[in-house]
Structures are given as structure tokens and as C-alpha cells.
Design brief:
The protein is of the alpha/beta class. The protein folds into 2 domains: about 160 residues, Beta Barrel (Lyase, Ornithine Decarboxylase, Chain A, domain 1); about 240 residues, TIM Barrel (Alpha-Beta Barrel). Helix content is about 25%, strand content about 25%. It contains 11 helices and 21 strands. The strands form 3 sheets. Strands 4, 14, 15, 16, 17, 18, 19, 20 and 21 form a 9-stranded mixed beta sheet that branches. An 8-stranded parallel barrel has the order 5-6-7-8-9-11-12-13, surrounded by 5 helices. Helix 8 links the parallel strand 11 and strand 12. Helix 2 runs parallel beside helix 3. The longest helix has 19 residues. The chain starts with a strand and ends in a 16-residue tail after the last strand. The relative contact order is 0.16. It binds ligand LLP. The site of ligand LLP has 20 residues, from helix 10 and helix 11. Ligand LLP binds next to helix 10 and helix 11. Pathway: Amino-acid biosynthesis; L-lysine biosynthesis via DAP pathway; L-lysine from DL-2,6-diaminopimelate: step 1/1. Its EC number is 4.1.1.20. This is Diaminopimelate decarboxylase. It catalyses: meso-2,6-diaminopimelate + H(+) = L-lysine + CO2. Its cofactor is pyridoxal 5'-phosphate.
Length: about 425
């Protein structure tokens, strides 16, 4: 559930703010987030985990704006990061480094050192060379790094191949068959302390079966490790819970957590989740202005001022994202349009073959754009990245200014 709804007069609202007012004030393209939605989604996970010891580690990659991270930190959230940059963001936002888990296949020595200085909760290690590097870095600092090993359970998450991560052919994690041997090796390294087991099998999953299959495999592994004298304190099941973009019916966090909790009964394990999309996607929209309507030979184009550099999901994954008018009561003729941006690429589209009743100068909203929207934005075609506004009831807050053009070349240098 989210707080983007139409008012009776046809105006789209973000909580109690009319989107038409926000675009008039802040311009377009404009990301608009709802505080109540973000908090509701985070609390749904927290409540779903309930009485079981748990930590919700929000996946910063979904949306790393400091204001968003700060709101989650105020709720007591942990964070899942994949770079030193994301750790710096969490800290700048007032997040607690001691609730941070560090995922990713390519951690550099500098990133490890920084994370150890900040005393993060756990490194989610993805390979043996990484274990060795971390052991060496921690040793050189006179520290012990807490680790979990990311297990690749070889499960088909049934999602897009680019965002499916738990299959054998993916670069992520360690094959489950090799896990006991790698855990024993980790336990033998003096500057590492084994604390957890983790996995992440993919993103935008709309069924719980693959999650439960993965959990079963990990629990069996945890038993095997216990028998070998390696005690595991936490099970991190990753992120991946899907959201409703179109007509998907993803499970509610409580359905997912209830099924997991049944499996965890009588085990002394802290349960960890790393949700990104499920918290942020439907907490945000991307508002854009219709610049031109253009009739092609066999298609009509709505050319808008947002482009693939602002929101790359449709271009990159052929993702379908709902596009709706900011005022649905305007008297317009309906037509089917490809909604495209100004970037010089055929792949620059936000949606294809959408029925819309619009005229130039109208505004559209791309829904479910709060996750992997701004965080994947670029400056391609020398376009400054969009402004971001976070709405709290009737009050909008500008949480990121539109980039001034000169900032695009701020770090470039002419030859002498
Ligand atoms: N944990 C790990 C280790 C991950 O790799 C990811 C996402 C998450 C948690 C969060 O997953 P979520 O709950 O958001 O599904 N850019 C793509 C999604 C890439 C997801 C990568 N990993 C998209 O726009 O669909």
C-alpha cells in the first residue's frame, strides 16, 4: 500500500501534496517520495519478523538519498551496503555502522579497512580470495572481522536474468556444495570470526517458494556446520521480495516472514533481511512533463522531459512501469503512445504502447520509481540528474537539488 492516490477532482496526490503543485515548484523531471509509505513498508518487515530476534538491513543501492537513509535510521534500521561509498552515505545520514552488512563480490582493501574502522556488523564474503584478503587486512589493523559467507544455493528465482543472482552460473556467492569446506577454512583464519550465513537469490520475486527452498538449504548447512563445531549466530536471507508494478501479486512481508519463522523455531538464530525494492519502489514516483506529441509512420510518440538517464529500468530490463497522468480529469483525446525521452538512443523509453489522454505541457507520473530509479541515474547526454522531494503529509522537503549544469564538469580539467 502506498500514499499516491487521486483526489476527487482528478489531481494526483503524494500524501496530501498535489503533484501538480510540486512540479510547479520544483520543476521536472522530479522524483517524489512519500515518507508515510517508506515507514509503512519498513515497519511491515519489522512487525513481520515480530518476536524473533531480527535486523532489517535496508539495501542502500535501491535508493541511497541521505534523507531516506536518515528516516530509516531513525526507525532503527540496519543497512546492506555494497561499497565504501554506500557506507559513507549511511554514516553521513546518521545510520549506525554497527548495524551494517557489507555485500558484494569486489571489496577493495581500502573498503575493507574503512568498514573495519567503522566496526560494521558483518562482511558478507563472496569468495575464498576475499576471505584471505579480509583476514590479512583485519590482521594488519589488529582487528577481527565478523563474517558470513554468501551461499549460492543454485535456485531459480524465476525473475529477470539480469537480476537473478542465486543460480550456479551467476558470479555471486559460493556454491552450496563447497560451503562446509570454505566455512572450515574461514574458521581457521585468525583474524576472522564466523558469525553468519547469507544468501540473496534474486530480485523482484513474486513467490515465496524459492525463498523457502533457499532457507531450507541454508538451515541444513547451519546444522552441518554446527556438527563441525562452527556455530552460526545469524541467518541473512537477503532481499528480493517483489512489488506490484503491473498485475504482480507479490507476497506480503508477513506471509514471507511467517513461513520463515516456522522453519526457525527453537533455533538460536537472528534473522536478517536485506529488502530494498519492497521498501522503496512504491514509495516513489518520477514526475515528467510532456514536451511534444509526435505522430510517426505507425506509432505515436509522447516525448517527455525524463529519459533513460533518469530511469533506466525500462531500457535496461524491459521493465514495465505504470505511467499515469498527474491530472486525470483534463479533457483530452486518448491515444496509444510510446513514452520516450530526449536522449539520443532508440532504447530511451519509459513505456511503450500506453493509452494516455494527454496534450503537450501536461504532466505524467511513472509509478513505482522509488527503488533503482534515482540510484541508477546518470548524466548521459550532459543531462543533470533530477531533483528529489520527500513529502511528509502536507509538507514537501527538497532532499536533493537539481544538479546545476556546471557541476557536471566540476571535476574535469583542461590541458595546460
Ligand atoms: N541484498 C543483496 C546482496 C543484493 O544484491 C540486493 C539487490 C538486495 C539485497 C536488494 O534486493 P531487493 O530487495 O531490492 O530486490 N537494478 C535492478 C535490481 C538489482 C538488484 C541487485 N541486488 C532493478 O532495477 O530491478
Amino acid at each position: 500500500m502506498d500514499y499516491f492516490n487521486y483526489r476527487e477532482d482528478g489531481e494526483l496526490l503524494a500524501e496530501q501534496c498535489a503533484v501538480s503543485g510540486l512540479v510547479a515548484q520544483y520543476g521536472t523531471p522530479l522524483y517524489i517520495y512519500s515518507r508515510a509509505t517508506i515507514e509503512r513498508h519498513w515497519k511491515a518487515f519489522d512487525a513481520a519478523a515480530g518476536e524473533v530476534p531480527h535486523l532489517i538491513c535496508y539495501a542502500v543501492k535501491a535508493n541511497g538519498n541521505l534523507a531516506v537513509l536518515n528516516l530509516l535510521a531513525r526507525l532503527g534500521s540496519g543497512f546492506d551496503i555494497v561499497s565504501g561509498g554506500e557506507l559513507a552515505r549511511v554514516i553521513a545520514a546518521g545510520g549506525d555502522a554497527k548495524k551494517v552488512v557489507f555485500s558484494g563480490v569486489g571489496k577493495t582493501e581500502a573498503e575493507m579497512r574503512y568498514a573495519l574502522e567503522q566496526d560494521i556488523l558483518c562482511f558478507n564474503v563472496e569468495s575464498e580470495p576475499e576471505l584471505e584478503r579480509l583476514n590479512q587486512v583485519a590482521g594488519s589493523m589488529g582487528k577481527v572481522a565478523r563474517i558470513s559467507i554468501r551461499i549460492n544455493p543454485d535456485i531459480d528465482a524465476g525473475t529477470h536474468p539480469y537480476i537473478s543472482t542465486g543460480l550456479k552460473q551467476n558470479k555471486f556467492g559460493i556454491p552450496i556444495e563447497r560451503a562446509p569446506e570454505v566455512y572450515k577454512y574461514a574458521a581457521s583464519l585468525p583474524h576472522l570470526q564466523v558469525t553468519g550465513v547469507d544468501c540473496h537469490i534474486g530480485s523482484q520475486l513474486t513467490e515465496i517458494a524459492p525463498f523457502l527452498e533457499a532457507a531450507d538449504k541454508l538451515l541444513t548447512l547451519i546444522d552441518e556446520l554446527a556438527a563441525a563445531g562452527i556455530k552460526i549466530h545469524h541467518l541473512d536471507v537477503g532481499g528480493g521480495l517483489g512489488v506490484n508494478y503491473n498485475d504482480e501479486t507479490p507476497p506480503h512481508p508477513s506471509e514471507y516472514a511467517t513461513a520463515l519463522k516456522q522453519k526457525l523455531q527453537d533455533r538460536d538464530l537472528t534473522l536478517m533481511f536485506e529488502p530494498g525494492r519492497a521498501i522503496m519502489a512504491n514509495a516513489g514516483i518520477l514526475a515528467t512533463r510532456v514536451e511534444y506529441l509526435k505522430a510517426g509512420e505507425d506509432r505515436h510518440f509522447a516525448i517527455v522531459d525524463a529519459a533513460m538517464n533518469d530511469l533506466i529500468r525500462p531500457s535496461l530490463y524491459s521493465a514495465w512501469m505504470n505511467i499515469i497522468p498527474v491530472n486525470r480529469a483534463l479533457p483530452r483525446d486518448a491515444q496509444r503512445y510510446d513514452v520516450v525521452g530526449p536522449v539520443c538512443e532508440t532504447g530511451d523509453f519509459l513505456g511503450k504502447d500506453r493509452e494516455l489522454a494527454i496534450a503537450p505541457g501536461d504532466y505524467l507520473a511513472v509509478r513505482s520509481a522509488g527503488a533503482y530509479g534515482f540510484s541508477m541515474a546518470s548524466n548521459y547526454n550532459a543531462r543533470s540528474r533530477a531533483a528529489e522531494v520527500l513529502v511528509d503529509g502536507e509538507q514537501p522537503h527538497l532532499i536533493r537539488e537539481r544538479e546545476p549544469l556546471a557541476s557536471l564538469w566540476q571535476f574535469e580539467h583542461l590541458l595546460p
